[in-house]
C-alpha cells in the first residue's frame, strides 16, 4: 500500500495527518498489518485478506467479532477496532481494513510464560464465557456443523500441481480421515453447550504491558464449546519450545478458569477430539491457498504451502499428546 493511499485512508477515517512513514509489522498468517503515526495518535491498520473478504459470510463475521470485542471491553482488557464513520470495518478503494489504537507492549514467547500469566488468562477466559451477549443476537453457526472435507480431492490436486506436501499428505491420509470422523462425533456430542469466546486466545494474541494483558485480534470470535475452548487455550499457554506441555502451566490456566466456574466435569476424550476441528479447518484453508484455489498472490501461496506442512505436523503432535492430556484431566480434575 503506497504512502498516498495511506494519506487518503487516514483522511477518510479522520485519523489526522501522517507524520511518519507507515511501516509493515507482523499481521499473523492471514492479513497485512501496518503501524502509522499521525497528528492525532499512533495506530495499527490491518488490511483484511481480499480472498477472505470474498466469502459471503465474511463481512457479517467481522461485524459480529468486533461487536463482541467492543462489548467485552467494558469488563475485560479487550482491544476492539476503532469505530470510524459509524462502523468498525472501513472500506477504501475496494479494500477492507480495521483500525486499532497502538498498544505499547509485547507478546510472550514460550520460555517467558509463567504460571501467573496462565492463571490470569484462564480467569479472563472464564469471564468471557460468563459474559451476556444476548443483546448482540449472534446466531450459533456451529451448532449443527459437520466437517465434510474431501481430503482425496486435495491430494489429487496436489499431485497435478506437483506440490511439495503431496508425500506428507498421502502418508497421513488414513489419519486425516480418522481425525475428521472423531471430530464430527465430538461436535454432535458437545453441540448443545456453546458460549461465545475469542476462539484464538494463544500468546500471540495477548499483548503485555508489564503484568497487564490486553487481548487483541478478535476476528475469530464466535460460538464454541466452553471446555473445548478452555483446553485448547490451556495448551497454547503451556506449550514449551520443543512442543511438549508444561503440566504446571497447564493446570495453572485451568485453575484460573475454575476460580470463576467451580468444578469441571466432562467427557475429556470427546473434548480433546473436538480440538481437531479448528486444526483440520486450518489445514484445508492452507491447502486451498497452496493450490491457488483461495489465494491472492505468490507470497500467500508460498505461505499456504509452508502452513500445510507445519499444520500436518502440528496435528500429529496434538494427536500424540491427547492420551497424556486425557489422563491428566481424568486424574487431576
UniProtKB/TrEMBL annotation:
The lineage of its organism: Bacteria, Bacillati, Bacillota, Bacilli, Bacillales. InterPro entries: Aminoglycoside_PTrfase, Kinase-like_dom_sf, Prot_kinase_dom. It comes from the Bacteria. Residues 4-333 form the Protein kinase domain. It holds the Pfam family APH. This is Phosphotransferase.
